[in-house]
Amino acid sequence: MSRYYFFLMFILIFFSKCFNSTENIPANKVLPSAKQFEYQQMETIGFIHFTINTFTNKEWGFGDENPSVFNPTRLDVEQWVITAKNAGLKELLLTAKHHDGFCLWPSKYTEHSIKNSPYKNGRGDIVREFVDACKKHNIKAGLYLSPWDRNHKDYGNPQYINYYRNQLRELLSNYGSINEIWFDGANGGDGFYGGAYETRKIDNKTYYQWDSTFALVKELQPDIMIFSDAGPDVHWIGNEKGFAGETFWSTINQNKLIIGASDTKYLNTGDPNGTHWIVGQCDVSIRPGWFYHQHEDSLVKTANQLVDIYYKSVGRNAVLLLNLPPDHRGLIHENDVAALNEFKQIIDETFSNNMASKAKAIAKNSVRNFEVKNILDNNIETYWASQQQALPVEISLSFKNEIEFDRIMLQEPVHLGQRISEFKVDALVNGQWETLYQGTTIGYKRLLRTKQTKSKQVKLVVTKANNNVALSSFGIYQSSEKEYN
Ligand code: FUL
Question: Which one of 33, 51, 288, 447 is most buried, by most CB atoms within 10 A?
């Protein structure tokens, strides 16, 4: 009996070794954490800029505002969450405290908060309402806690760091699971500072003692994603337009990054030789400002502008963080909701029909268990991989009947690292190969806008990569008629 048992075990181990997925393909040195991989797959998330500025019509409050002006009359946090959800956003981040220092929760460490406002007669807690609404509608919740605080008397002194960490403790201990914490790098200098009315600049490198603050954050919420100019989990893309670089690596040298003082060009491209994996995040507002201003009601970005941003963020291997600032009623304005809904419709119409799913995929030198059909199954975790490092590598899709298209989607299985740095897409048009697109990086997702093309055969040619080429998706689509209208 036991002999058979051992024999059976041997056979099982032998086969599991033969079919073990990662053994055949060398993984890259720098890889995303499981949580970063999951985070990237959210693709689009939203920002909610809402505070005392909404009522004073400012972008940066000075810190001397009277809490009595904070008085939303029809605040409906669920409307924010439902609006975001309808637009396909998977997470919402709320400005729990912006640079003016006013807190949307009744912090016990300051009087400059919602507890001294008319909202719910001082008994309100918008962080609580927000987190609960996110939970109810199954969307992740994140918080923004501005390090720069123009209200606090101690800002600029070491005591302020204790205050800041106490607030972090409140937010990360009392509100359940928080998916992301957003650390801003701004410091404009002047402020109220407890009545001092002066300019206080800090040393970006030393003042906040970020290392120990990050450690505290992870201690309080081990799964949280930390965003800042320098990561460690997610980094700023270097502009507030929502555009990642056309070449964008999720790898970067963390020691070259300083919160509040990083090279924005470097943040925008990442680094093929980067030592750390940090997801790129493209933040942009649906309006010119981050906070609501009535005079911007006619300046809401159009659905087509949002679509363009989508191609330049999600379509360039980054996550899109779109700001939707509620107005003084406490609602996301009708114009914003309309633009967002139309944006979602265009994206859905474009990407709902992947013509490649009817194609026959062909590639030479596949590694066993990583067959080329894996690029057609809409699953980032399954992929085709090349047995050899020799380049170029070609993956082609052939169709029974001619297809007509103008959009292409490519994905690398980035849980094995980011590899490709030069590629082109060709199509056979009237018997001749034509190059539709030449590009550099692909990463988690690359979306290509090509000219309108009719063809029966389309191929991806990879000419540069830092390891065996692996591809998890090759999709072909026709853009919605609503685009550019
Ligand atoms: C910036 C801030 O100064 C803006 O007010 C806004 O919050 C934006 C997202 O980040 O650095």
Answer: 51
Q: How many domains does the chain have?
A: 2
Give yes or no for residue 77 having a pLDDT over 90.
Answer: yes
- Inter-residue long-range contacts of 337-340, CB under 8 Å, 24+ positions, other chains counted: 337/83, 339/286, 339/300, 339/301, 339/302, 339/303, 339/306, 340/83, 340/86, 340/87, 340/286, 340/303, 340/306
Structural domain boundaries enclosing 473? 355-477
Pocket of ligand 1 (CB under 6 A): 59, 184, 186, 283, 290
pLDDT in tens, 277-325: 999 999 999 999 999 999 999 999 999 999 999 999 999 999 999 999 9
Tell me if 239 is assigned to some domain: yes
Which residue carries 């980054």 as its tokens?
Answer: 318
| Ligand 1 midpoint to CA 60 (Å) | 9
- What does pLDDT average to over the chain? 94
Burial of 198 (0-12, 13-18, 19+ CB in 10 A): exposed
pLDDT in tens, 126-153: 999 999 999 999 999 999 999 999 999 9
| Domain end marker among 301, 327, 351 | 351
Atom 10 of ligand 1, nearest CA residue: 184
DSSP 373: G
